[in-house]
## 1
Amino acid sequence: MLRPRRSARSRSCIVVGRERAFAESGHTPDCSLAKHLASDNTPCLAGRYQRALADLPPLAEQTVALKEYPDHHDAELVLKLYELRREEVMRESRTQLIAKFLPTSFEDVIAVTKGDHPLNAAFRQCTSFWEMTYAMARHGVMHADFMLESNGEGLLIFSRIEPWLAEYRAAMNPIAFRNAEWVAKETEMGRMISDRFRKRMQAHLDAAKAAQA
């Protein structure tokens, strides 16, 4: 039985939804659906996709009701996140990225996004994981400070990108690391953790600069 062909409008909504999911995780897919649409003789859909992403609200305009107190559901999610971090491939990716991803320039950050970079897979896996985790706090699914007490590692990675965040967004994705930025700036625990990691990153940059002098 043949399935009915979707209208142009419904296909546009599906595409925007998929692309937004990539965007919220901090990444742009390797093969952009917008480009596919444009090459598929449907430029109007590509235009709708671009307009839909442009209509995303600024980070400061958070309107979701956040959780005031953690409950047993938060505890279950935190324990689940711990289980996921212990998965063999995830653990190896985390170890590699924390030990070896030490950028000193925007070029170093962009390099890891290339498919042939040895840390590319680890970068994509870890940053996606932490963006999904922090999205649960930003959207009110989890109590943010409770979650961050045991899940601050993503802010360590974010601190290594933050000095060039504007450039990264201009080059890669306008809302990259949107969720990490939110927890780093809008939560008490996130501000405390991020302040510590920023000091480490600044010391790393100062040492690199001194070594070049």
## 2
Amino acid sequence: MELNLKSKESCKFDAASLGEVMLRLDPGEGRIRTARSFRAWEGGGEYNVIRGLHKCFGLNTAVITAFADNEVGKLMKDFIEQGGVSTDLIYWKKTDGIGRICRNGINFTERGFGIRGAVGCSDRANTAISQATPADFDFEYIFGKLGVRWLHTGGIYAALSEQACETVIEACKTAKKYIANEQADVSSLIKGLSAKHAELAEMQKEFARKESELKQLRRKTDLHELRLRQHEMELKKSGHKEAQKFLSESRKTLENLVRELKEGEVTREKTL
């Protein structure tokens, strides 16, 4: 299939990605819940693609993303540069130093072993890229002046926030004007993203409703379990009392039998 892309000579970048890049912490052979050390990497669904395009095929690529302007953000920038991807299109967002204004996303990932699957745990709320708006990126400059042969983005980033969805739509609209690739229906993509965002909102409402129902069911289950334990304790106490009564009565009976035997022996001796 012929893609009908712009010539390589007319564009600075063969491909660019728009999405979130997180700090990935890997516990190696261990578990996240018990690890004492982690190896640090960079990672993100959209970013991984253009990093692979550079490493595997030698393409000139760039990442369009946003970082909180702090030491973690600079570490992420260094990781990206080590991967050979351009960091010229990163938007640096000011932060207050404790993450109230914005922060950088973190992703914990442990590998699977045997029948146990891999486990991922993301901490990505209030990130710089989720707050970024179309005004933070000069898409006209990126696609019009610099030139990009291919734009790669994804639904994961688009679903992070309202601003992320708007940024994806604006990027696709601008890219459509300059990237000579009519193989993909960008208009359908934009409509699909908007519909998907509305669908995700409904899914979140449904999830919240089911979570509330689950909490109520869990409370009822806990209460039922408590009652069962109380009943079990009562039965044990009752059984213990009955056992003590039985032992006491048995002891008295045995004592009586011994007394009768002794009395019988005394009577027998006197008779003889």
## 3
Amino acid sequence: MECVAVAYLRIQHGFSTLSRVHARLQCADRAAVRRARARDGIVGTHHAVTAFAALIFAPMVVLGGVSASAWHGVAFTELATLAGTSRAGTALEIGNTCVFLSLFLTPLAIPPLLSLGSWPMVWAVASLCALNALPIFPRALRNDKAGAALIS
């Protein structure tokens, strides 16, 4: 995030330098419009930097949001398929409740874990939570004859 801030400040500084050079070349003092030209230069610089940021950062935000949220639809589709048509609504409700409960509890759990250890400890606890949830998922069915005998 620091790199983005530094890049933003350098771009803004470059535009402001150009507007000052332009104002000096126009000899704004003789026409007594120095304040108006300075204001126009600042507003123009702000609009140029804002447009640049929108062109670069808006697609990044959209792509990041899609990437972060795409798993949700796939997981809920599989959850509804496993539950069947008669219990799909209940399964989706419980799944959604568990997701939002974990999203609520995770930020509350990180500061105490950091006070006890460091970030590797936080990631280790998160990995243990993921491993703890692994038995909930059903095992894949095998397609060979031995697997068919076990299923029936």
## 4
Amino acid sequence: MQTVRTPEGAVLCARCSVAATPRTRLRGLLGRTLAPDEGLLIRPTNAIHMFFMAYPIDVVFLDRDSRVLRVVEALAPWRAAACRRARSVLELPAGACARVGVGPDDVLTFTPSERPA
């Protein structure tokens, strides 16, 4: 698990899982719901689809330096999104990007999440 922060230090995602194997990338969020502080980083990829999903999500396309290239807010089920230069995609609950003001050219910081005591 990782914590994702904006350049200003605001927490965008307190519990971010990473999908980096073919199997975990393929599964993505299928059969899961996202808590308000949860997210999924999929890498490497530059596109996602929302087939068989039941709820909208915010999608953040990142380059190799974790710079935001594109934000798609509230991507609806049965839709797809892509960004040619992206190297990873951060999937978040709908409204998360607007809540903290994430936009293009922001550089996100990923740090290991602290384990609860």
